[in-house]
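Minutes, structural biology subgroup

Action item carried over from last meeting: produce the structure token record for Non-heme bromoperoxidase BPO-A2 (Mycobacterium simulans). EB confirmed the sequence was re-checked against the source entry. Recorded below for completeness.
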Amino acid sequence: MSARWSFLGGVTARLPELLPPSRALSVRSADCTRLHTRVFGPPTGYPIVLIHGFACAIRAWAYQIADLATDYRVIAFDQRGHGRSDVPGRRGYTLARIASDLDAVLEATLARHERALIAGHSMGGITLAAWTSRYSHNVRRRADAVALINTMTGDLLRETQLLQVPRALSSARVLAGRCLINAFSGVQLPGAARIQSRYLVPMLALGDGVDPRVAELVFQMFEETSPLGRGGCARMLTDALGSRHLSLAGLTVPTLVIGSQSDRLAPLSQSRRIARAAPNLVDLVELPGGHCSMLEQHREVNRLLRATVRIDDPHGRGRLNTS
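Output recorded by EB:
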């Protein structure tokens, strides 16, 4: 393993190898796609819903589940085309469908009048933003607050730092980036490409000095994601967010935004833009590290998520406290 991934003793706690006990559910979305869903922690605990990103799975939240499930009811699901959820065909990936997936999971796991803290990482944040736009009537009914972690709302190819070229050639970078993402995401990796990808995927997704076990987990999740799922979601993201931004007008509940200083896939400028556009921003927190702050800066992310549950009114609802 390259020295880039050298273990920083005492900085990163051992990655949880096993998730705590859980209850598994099979949730059906509006188009009948089966979504593998797991519920951790005390059955009567306050609910926290976690939505993973592109080419990840429930395991991406290992640190959060291990910590938060000691006190809260943690709900996580594999997005369509990922993990143990169904893999629809080529046309089964749209923003409307992933928003519908989230709505189905919330309806299946929350009690009739129950609201949750909902957190989305990367594509999970896009799922959450799409849900607030298409299901605005459900936002205040189902969400006390939301956390958008290392995510973006648009201009995906122009902002993502996959290719460094002069500004004058930005249109060429967009075209090359689209070809690279579609080709890299939608194929089964042959042996030679797999060797290169073992280093390329963590290099893009993580900052410097990460525990090699975290780098290995990120690559494993990428490799284990169906090529059809990767390709479908990659095309969805580049087509829907290639040159425009999602509206955040429906994001009416308290909103925490977390970005990272060395994020190559969702640069800090994206988090700052979301913070400016969010109608009910509580805080913008800028962390060191790369795109996967829930793995790289897990203690701080856990603290921030816990802080969103520390509400100061008698009914346990109200303002976030991230200080």
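Discussion: DSSP finds twelve helices and eight strands in the chain.
Next step: EB to file the record with the rest of the batch.
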